[in-house]
Design goal:
This protein is an alpha/beta fold. It folds into 2 domains: 12-194 and 388-402, Rossmann fold (3-Layer(aba) Sandwich); 197-385, Rossmann fold. It is 40% helix and 17% strand. The protein contains 16 helices and 14 strands. The chain has helices at residues 2-14, 33-43, 83-87, 89-104, 117-125, 142-147, 155-164, 178-181, 205-215, 236-242, 261-270, 285-293, 309-317, 354-366, 368-385, 388-399; strands at residues 17-22, 50-57, 66-69, 72-77, 108-112, 132-136, 167-170, 188-190, 222-227, 250-255, 277-281, 297-300, 321-323, 347-348. The longest helix is centred in the last third of the chain and has 18 residues, at 368-385. The radius of gyration is 22 Å and the shape is globular. The two termini are 32 Å apart.
Length: 403
C-alpha cells in the first residue's frame, strides 16, 4: 500500500502543467506577431512539461473546430467569420473555457494581448478558478487601445484583469509601461518576441531566380519590400507616397494583405506609380523570407508597434532597414544620427514623412559599404538578443513555472 501511495505521488508531481491560451486568431490563417509568438514558444516547450490548449475564433467554416497544431490543442468557437461571432467571442470563449476546465483543470490562463482579458475574466466568472498570465503584444498605441468607445463599458473588467494578473509579461520596454497605468502593482517581466531565423538561411539561386521572374523583377531594378498586414498602423501609404520621389527603377513589393488593400491600390493609381507597386496578397509565412531574399531594402514606417517581428526577421536576413522608432521598434532600431551611442542597425524616419524614406533609400544606395556594415550590426544584434530558443526558455522558467 505504501508503494502504491508513493507511485501516485510521483505521478502527481511529474504530470504536465496545463495552460489555456486566449487568442482571437491562430494558425492556419490570420497570423501576425502574437500568433507567431505562441507557436514559436510552444514548439520549444516539451508536452511532457506543459500541455497547451488554446481557445480562438473560427474565422472559416472549413477550418476544424478542434485540432492539434504541433504542441497546441486548438479549440475554435463562433459561427465562421461573421462579424457577430467576433463581437460575441469573449462570451463564447469564456463558456468554452469553462467546459474545458471541467475536463482538464488548468493550472493557469495565458492571455495574449489586452483585449483577451475580457474572455479570461468572464471565464473566471463562470467557474474557471485559475491564475492568469497577461502578455502585452498590442501593436496599437495606448491611447487607441484604451480609447475606443466600444470598449468603454468593459474597461472596469479589463482593468480588473490587469490588477489581478499573477504575472504580466511585455515584449518591449514601451509596452512594459502600460500595466502601472491600468492599476497593476507588480513587477513587469520583459521578454521580447524573437527573429525568424529562416530569414537568414540561403536558398538555391534557381529558386530565387524563379521567384524574381514570377513577380517581374528586371535587371537593374531595386526592390523595396515590406512584410505586414495592410492596416493604417503600418503606414504602407507612406511607402507608396515615397515612390514618386525616387527613380523609376525603384519598385515596391508589398507582401501581405488587409483591410486597406483596395485604398492602397487606388493611391498607387492616383500617384501614377501603380506599375511600380506589386501586391502579393496573403502569403504563407515560409514565403516571406524568400521575398526578402530577392529584395534590396526593407521599409516599414509604422505609426505604432508593440515590437514588430517583421523588423527583427529583416535584421537577421541582412537587408538594410528603414523604419520609424515608434513603440517597441526603439528597442532595436538604432540610427547613426539619432543614436550615436549605440551600434547602428538601420535608418530611422519620422512618422508620415515619405520624403525622409526617399532620402534614406538614396543614402543606402549611394553608400553600399556603410549599408553592409549596418546590416552586419543588425544581424549580430538580432541573433544575440532575439533568439526564440532563449525566449522560450525564459518564458518557461520566468513565467509558466511561476503560476
Amino acid at each position: 500500500m505504501a508503494l502504491c501511495a508513493e507511485n501516485v505521488t510521483l505521478y502527481a508531481v511529474n504530470k504536465p502543467k496545463k495552460i489555456l491560451i486566449f487568442s482571437l486568431a491562430y494558425y492556419p490563417s490570420h497570423v501576425s506577431g502574437a500568433e507567431v509568438a505562441i507557436k514559436e514558444i510552444t514548439d520549444r516547450i516539451a508536452p511532457k512539461d506543459i500541455e497547451f490548449h488554446l481557445v480562438t475564433l473560427l474565422f472559416d467554416k472549413t477550418t476544424a473546430r478542434e485540432e492539434v497544431i504541433d504542441h497546441v490543442h486548438v479549440h475554435r468557437v463562433g459561427s465562421g467569420g461573421a462579424y457577430l461571432s467576433k463581437v460575441l467571442f469573449p462570451l463564447a470563449a469564456a463558456l468554452k473555457a469553462s467546459s474545458l476546465h471541467k475536463q482538464h483543470h488548468f493550472d493557469a490562463l495565458w492571455v495574449m494581448m489586452t483585449y483577451m482579458l475580457l474572455p479570461a475574466m468572464l471565464a473566471k466568472c463562470v467557474g474557471v478558478n485559475a491564475p492568469h498570465i497577461l502578455t502585452l503584444q498590442d501593436g496599437d498605441p495606448y491611447e487607441k487601445v484604451f480609447g475606443r468607445a466600444r470598449i468603454w463599458p468593459f474597461l472596469p473588467l479589463i482593468d480588473r484583469g490587469f490588477r489581478t494578473a499573477k504575472i504580466v509579461q511585455a515584449i518591449s520596454a514601451y509596452l512594459a509601461t502600460w500595466p502601472a497605468r491600468r492599476g497593476y502593482r507588480g513587477e513587469v517581466i520583459t521578454i521580447p518576441n524573437g527573429a525568424s531565423i529562416p530569414s537568414a538561411q540561403p536558398y538555391p539561386q534557381e529558386e530565387l531566380d524563379a521567384l524574381k521572374k514570377e513577380i517581374g523583377k528586371q535587371k537593374g531594378e531595386v526592390f523595396l519590400v515590406s512584410v505586414s498586414r495592410l492596416v493604417h498602423q503600418k503606414a504602407i501609404d507612406i511607402i507608396i507616397r515615397a515612390l514618386p520621389l525616387l527613380p523609376e527603377n525603384i519598385r515596391y513589393l508589398c507582401v501581405g494583405d488587409g483591410e486597406e488593400r483596395e485604398s492602397l491600390e487606388s493611391l498607387a493609381q492616383e500617384l501614377g506609380v501603380a506599375d511600380r507597386v506589386i501586391f502579393t496578397g496573403q502569403v504563407d509565412r515560409t514565403m516571406t523570407a524568400k521575398y526578402r531574399k530577392i529584395s534590396d531594402i526593407f521599409v516599414l514606417p509604422s505609426r505604432s508597434e508593440g515590437q514588430g517581428i517583421s523588423f527583427l526577421s529583416t535584421m537577421v536576413s541582412g537587408l538594410p532597414m528603414i523604419a520609424t522608432q515608434e513603440g517597441g521598434i526603439a528597442d532595436f532600431l538604432f540610427d547613426a544620427k539619432r543614436n550615436p551611442d549605440k551600434p547602428t542597425t538601420g535608418w530611422a524616419v519620422d512618422v508620415d514623412r515619405p520624403e525622409q524614406i526617399a532620402e534614406a533609400v538614396k543614402d543606402i544606395l549611394a553608400h553600399s559599404d556603410i549599408a553592409q556594415k549596418v546590416t552586419k550590426n543588425a544581424s549580430k544584434f538580432a541573433h544575440e538578443h532575439y533568439d526564440w530558443d532563449v525566449i522560450a526558455k525564459d518564458m518557461e522558467g520566468q513565467v509558466f513555472r511561476n503560476v
